Amino acid sequence: MAWSAAVLILVAVAIVAVSNLMIIRVGEAHVTASAEDASKSQVAIVLGAKVFGDNVLSHVLADRLDTGIDLYRSGKVGKLLLTGDHGQSRYDEVNAMRKYALSKGIPAEDIFMDHAGFDTYDSMYRARDIFEIQSAVVVTQRFHLARSVYIARALGIDATGASADKRVYMKGRLFEIREALARVKAFFELHITRPKPRFLGEKIPITGDGRSTND
Question: Containing domain of residue 85, as a range?
Answer without folding.
Answer: 2-213
